[in-house]
Fold:
Amino acid sequence: VEAVHLRLGVFSGVDRDALLFAYELACEGSPLAGSRLVIETIPLVIYCECCGKTRNPPSVYELSCPECGKPGQKIVTGREIEVASLEVAV
Amino acid sequence: MSTRMVEVRANVMKQNDLLARSLRDRFRIQGTFVVGLVSSPGSGKTAFLEKLLAGLARNYRVAALVGDLATENDAARLRRATPNVKQITTGTVCHLDAQMVERALEEWQLDQIDFLFIENVGNLVCPSNYDLGEELRFVLLSATEGEDKPLKYPTIFNSSDVAIITKMDLAEAAEFDLAAARRNIESVRPGMRVFEVSAKTGGGTQAVFDLLRVQLAHARHFNATLQPS
Structure:
């Protein structure tokens, strides 16, 4: 395996830098040894019931609609911890 | 050497999520209402749980699983309220996962339990990613910790259903800003219900008993409609 592509939401609770730091060590002695970890950061997107649209909240500390200001309870993206694909040598 | 892209699209948490879902199904079928408790270390989870168990044990069959890295101290404390307490010692692991819960339940008959509480390891980070099959998750925040905890740990507050502010008897001494705490909780988890309690005086706990009583009745009514007669 040359590389692992990971989709990581900003609201997943996983710290990107800590994960990259630990990755090399965790891979030692496995088929992943020497592979790269490529992280695609997925933004936090909520659904605003009031506007009927998906919105990017101002921050992960304020789950509200930037347009109408109403709180948004539905998270559309941002919680992902997903292995999207692998790059394998052929 | 060339490389080939292999699409995987696998959720890293999938195994835990699947197991948690099967646990939730089991709990529903057996009629056990399960509540998870998460908080930072020292926020009063065990003291609050002791009060809950003692209060509910008068009318219901209650049980608790309690997670810690080491020691059986918490289980010993909770056994004052009910004998149905099991300690899960995680060793070096900073959270509970669905498999630990499944193993701990092996000797218990769920249909003999009305309320099961699962007290997680004191940690506001990792437990947010591990579904344990609970019906409700309580996040506890003590008045002595400060009102900005929800902003520092938004993911755990967002993964929870109910916020419990503990140690309210110390709020004044700690100059705890209750309005700000409520605002911060609302900001990271819009619409979340908030209760203020003191395990020491018992203040506010009645409202939590009432919530649980209503939730259990609703869950049983709802599950009865799901099962073929």
